[in-house]
What we know:
Blueprint: H1 2-18, E1 23-28, E2 31-35, E3 41-43, E4 46-55, E5 62-70, E6 75-84, E7 90-95, E8 103-105, H2 113-119
Antiparallel strand pairs: 1-2, 2-4, 3-4, 4-5, 5-6, 6-7, 6-8
Amino acid sequence: MIATLTLAALSSAAAAAQAVKWVSLYTDRDGETFYDPASVTRTGTRTRLTLRAIDGNGTNWSAVMRVEIDCKAQTMGMLSMAQYGAGPEPVKTRTVPADQVERQPLFVGEDMEPIYRVACPKGAPLPKFSGPPIVVVPPPPPR
């Protein structure tokens, strides 16, 4: 009986996870990033939401991340992440302790700007990046 109830609960959780209505935020050379509108929660100037990134280069890689945006400070920090390969189970997970969340500044024109706009619809305009240009170096091909 307990096994049946446990299986039913797990099946319900799996069905609920598949029922997420992901909304596309942006597409870039690496893939596409989505968010779950039902995951958005606001507390004061901070907003948490769940993102999903899917590789667009023909691999089966994807990730689901829980992030927190500070609308006043205009920063974003990752709270947790699960990375997936071809199967339905994560191949790697990470949860960041609250006192170790690294908050990165957000700038206009970056990939993260659409995330800020969803999290902080009444937020102030993001600043322009000032400094040396950022050079993106692609990762080496898998061996």
